[in-house]
Design a protein that fits this description.
The complex is a heterodimer of chains A (about 425) and B (about 170).
Chain A (H helix, E strand, L loop, with lengths): L2 H9 L10 E5 L2 E5 L3 H10 L11 E4 L9 H17 L2 E3 L7 H7 L8 E4 L13 E4 L2 H10 L1 E5 L3 E7 L8 H12 L8 E5 L1 H5 L2 H9 L8 E3 L4 H7 L20 E6 L6 E3 L7 E3 L10 E5 H4 L2 H11 L9 E5 L3 H9 L2 H8 L2 E2 L20 E4 L15 E4 L2 H10 L5 H4 L3
Parallel strand pairs in A: 2-3, 2-5, 3-4, 5-6, 8-9, 8-11, 9-10, 14-15, 14-17, 15-16, 17-18
Antiparallel strand pairs in A: 1-7, 12-13
Chain B lengths: L1 E7 L6 H4 L10 H6 L9 H4 L5 E4 L11 H8 L4 E4 L4 H10 L3 E3 L1 H6 L5 E5 L4 E4 L4 E4 L5 H8 L3 H14 L3
Parallel strand pairs in B: 1-2, 2-3, 3-4
Antiparallel strand pairs in B: 1-5, 5-6, 6-7
Classes of the chains: A alpha/beta (about 425), B alpha/beta (about 170).
C-alpha cells in the first residue's frame, strides 16, 4: 500500500484498502473557517446533534473575512463564537490566531499519520506532515463533527519525484507551479499526489506546506510527503502526543510515477487565469503590475518572509506599487518582528497587515480594480478571485513577489539582489 | 424527468466563477442564484430559466470547497449539470445539497447551447430532444446511490442517530 492508503486503512479499522473502494474513516481533526463553519453549524443543529463527537477535535478558525470586514462577516463570526462556546469547540480568532492552514500545524493540532478533514479546499496543506488531509463542503464537515467519521473513496496515489538540487531563489512554490503547469488543473483529479526525491528531502517544512497546499489546484484529493527527520523536528515542541509514521511499501503501489529534473528550474509564474498557465520568470518579465501580495496559506510562513526580506532589505518599493505583506499567523508575525523582518518591509515602503486570508479570496485588504494586475504568492488566479473580473493575478514565490514590488514588473530576484 | 434548455460552458469552471466569494455571506439560494456565473458570464443570472440545464466539459466546479457553489446553481433554477468530469469536492457538495450531476462525455460533445435535453435520473438516460439523440450517463457508484436513496448524507446520519437513541443502555 501507499502512504495515503495505509493512513486510510488504519483509520477505517482495516488490514488494507484498495483504490476506488469506499470506506468510512475516523477523523483526528475537523476544521472549518468563518467562510464555511456557519453552514456546518446549521446542519449540526438540523441533525439535532447535542454535542460534537469530541470538542477537542473540532476547530473553527476565523480567517477569511477576519478581522470582520463588514457587518455580515461580524454577525457570522459572532454566531460562530457563541456556537463554539456552547459546544466547547476550539475557537480561534483574535488572540494568537492566524490562517487555518498556517495555524493548525504550528499549534501541533495535526500530526503525521492523522486523518484531517476541513471545510476549505486547501486543507490538503497538512499532507506536508505525512497526514491524510482533504477539503470538503460544510455538510460533510458537519457530519464529521457529529459522528467523528467520514466516507471517502480511496484515491490512487501518483508519485512525483523531483531530482536534483534547486537553484537559488527556486522554492517549493516553483516546484508545485511547475508540476501543475505540466499536468494541468485536473491532472491529478481524485488522486493523492505524493512528493518525493532529493529536492523534497532538501526542502524545509515551510516549502513542503506550500507544495501540499496547492495539490488541490491539480484536482488532487491531497498532497502528501512522507514524514522524515525534518517533520519530526517540526512536530517536537508543538505536540507531545504520540503519532505514527507511514511510508509507501513499493514503487508498484503507485498508480503512476512522474519524474522531473529540477536542477535547472527557474522561478515559475502562473499567468491569468488558471494555475496551470505556467511560464518561467524570464518569459514574462515585461509584465507590469500594480499590486504585490506576500502571504496566505500558501506562502505566509517564516521562510517566505525571510526570502522576501532578503530581496527588499535596503530597497524601496516602486512608487506605483501597493506591496501588502501579511504574516500567516500571530506566531509568524511575532517571529518576523523579532527577526527584524517587519522593519525591513516597513522601511521598504510595504504595508504589513494582520494575519488574514484577506485579498487572496477577494475579501478585503487589497482588492483589485478593473485592469489592475497583481503579483501574488497566493494559490489561485481565477477570474475575479481578488476583485474585479477584469483584473489579473500572477502567482509567484515570495522572492519574485518582493523583486516585482521593487521594479513594478514581474522580476527575477537575481536581477535586484546584490551578490 | 428533467427537461430543460442547455447553457453550455467550457472546461475548469471554478467555484469563483460559479459564485464569487464576496457573496459567501449570503445563504438564500435565490439571492445567490442571481449572481451565478457572474465573473465569467454576467448576464447568466438573468438569462437562465427554471429547469434549464448546464452542460460543461471537464473538471466542473474546481477550486474552493464552498458549498454555496451547488446551492447557487440550484438557486438560479438549474435542474442538473451534465459534464465530462467534476472536481471532487464539488461532486460531494452537489450530492449533499441535492443538485443532480451527470457525467457523460458523448452528451457534452453532441450538445449545443439552446438544445433541449431530457434527463431520467433513475436510469441515467440523457436525451437530446433537439437532435433526437440518446445517451447513458456514467452511473453513480452504489455507495453514492445509497446516500441519495436515504435522502442525502444528513438524513442518513439522522436516521442512524435516531436508531442509536433508541438502542438500550
Amino acid at each position: 500500500m501507499t502512504l495515503a492508503e495505509k493512513i486510510l486503512s488504519a483509520h477505517a479499522g482495516r488490514e488494507s484498502v484498495k483504490v476506488g473502494e469506499f470506506v468510512n474513516v475516523k477523523v483526528d481533526m475537523v476544521m472549518a473557517s468563518d467562510l464555511t463553519a456557519h453552514i456546518a453549524a446549521d446542519q449540526f443543529e438540523r441533525m439535532g446533534a447535542k454535542r460534537p463527537f469530541d470538542p477537542k477535535k473540532v476547530v473553527f478558525v476565523m480567517d477569511h473575512f477576519f478581522p470582520n470586514k463588514d457587518v455580515a462577516a461580524a454577525e457570522q463570526i459572532k454566531r460562530l463564537r457563541e456556537f463554539s462556546k456552547k459546544h466547547g469547540l476550539l475557537f480561534v480568532e483574535a488572540v494568537d490566531g492566524g490562517i487555518e492552514h498556517v495555524y493548525l500545524p504550528e499549534k501541533g493540532l495535526v500530526l503525521p499519520g492523522d486523518v484531517v478533514v476541513g471545510a476549505d479546499s486547501h486543507t490538503c496543506t497538512y499532507g506536508a506532515l505525512g497526514a491524510f488531509a482533504t477539503g470538503m463542503g460544510s455538510t460533510d464537515i458537519a457530519v464529521a463533527m457529529v459522528t467523528g467519521e467520514i466516507w471517502m473513496k480511496v484515491p490512487p496515489t501518483i508519485k512525483f519525484n523531483y531530482r536534483g538540487k534547486l537553484p537559488p531563489w527556486v522554492t517549493g512554490k516553483d516546484l508545485i507551479l511547475y508540476t501543475i503547469g505540466r499536468i494541468t488543473v485536473d491532472g491529478a483529479l481524485y488522486a493523492a499526489m505524493e512528493f518525493t526525491g532529493e529536492a523534497i528531502e532538501e526542502l524545509s517544512m515551510d516549502g513542503r506546506f506550500t507544495m501540499a497546499n496547492m495539490a488541490v489546484e491539480a484536482g488532487a484529493k491531497t498532497g502528501i510527503v512522507a514524514a522524515d527527520d525534518k517533520t519530526k523536528a517540526y512536530v517536537a515542541g508543538r505536540s507531545t502526543k504520540p503519532y505514527r509514521v507511514y511510508t509507501t511499501d513499493s514503487e508498484s503501489d503507485y498508480a503512476s510515477i512522474v519524474d522531473y529534473d529540477v536542477s535547472k528550474l527557474e522561478p515559475q509564474v502562473a499567468v491569468p487565469h488558471s494555475p496551470d498557465n505556467v511560464r518561467s520568470i524570464s518569459e514574462v518579465s515585461d509584465v507590469q503590475v500594480d499590486q504585490v501580495v506576500i502571504g496566505s496559506c500558501t506562502n505566509g510562513r517564516m521562510e517566505d518572509f525571510e526570502h522576501a526580506a532578503r530581496v527588499l532589505s535596503g530597497k524601496r518599493v516602486h512608487p506605483d506599487i501597493r506591496c501588502i505583506v501579511i504574516p500567516g499567523s500571530q506566531e509568524v508575525y511575532l517571529a518576523a518582528l523579532q527577526a527584524g523582518l517587519l522593519e525591513v518591509f516597513a522601511r521598504a515602503g510595504a504595508i504589513v497587515g494582520p494575519p488574514t486570508c484577506g485579498p487572496c479570496v477577494g475579501g478585503h485588504m487589497g482588492i483589485l480594480a478593473a485592469g489592475e494586475r497583481c503579483a501574488s504568492t497566493t494559490n489561485r488566479n481565477f477570474i475575479g478571485r481578488m476583485g474585479s473580473p477584469r483584473s489579473e493575478i500572477y502567482l509567484v514565490n515570495p522572492a519574485v513577489a518582493a523583486a516585482s514590488a521593487i521594479t513594478g514588473r514581474l522580476t527575477d530576484p537575481r536581477e535586484v539582489v546584490d551578490r | 424527468m428533467i427537461r430543460g434548455k442547455v447553457h453550455k460552458f467550457g472546461k475548469n469552471i471554478d467555484t469563483d466563477a460559479i459564485i464569487a466569494s464576496k457573496y459567501a455571506n449570503l445563504s438564500d439560494p435565490l439571492e445567490l442564484g442571481k449572481h451565478c456565473m457572474e465573473n465569467i458570464d454576467p448576464d447568466f443570472g438573468k438569462r437562465v430559466e427554471k429547469g434549464d440545464i448546464i452542460v460543461a466539459t471537464t473538471n466542473f466546479g474546481c477550486g474552493s470547497s464552498r458549498e454555496i457553489a451547488p446551492m447557487t446553481i440550484k438557486g438560479a433554477g438549474v435542474a442538473a449539470v451534465v459534464a465530462k468530469s467534476f472536481a471532487r469536492i464539488f461532486f460531494r457538495n452537489a450530492i449533499n445539497t441535492g443538485l443532480p450531476l451527470l457525467e457523460c462525455t458523448e452528451v457534452v460533445d453532441a450538445t449545443d447551447p439552446g438544445d433541449i435535453l431530457e434527463i431520467d435520473l433513475s436510469t441515467g438516460t440523457v436525451r437530446n430532444v433537439t437532435k433526437n439523440l440518446t445517451f447513458s450517463a456514467v452511473p453513480y457508484p452504489e455507495f453514492v446511490t445509497e446516500l441519495i436513496t436515504a435522502g442525502g448524507l444528513v438524513e442518513s446520519v439522522m436516521k442512524k442517530m435516531g436508531r442509536e437513541d433508541k438502542s438500550p443502555g
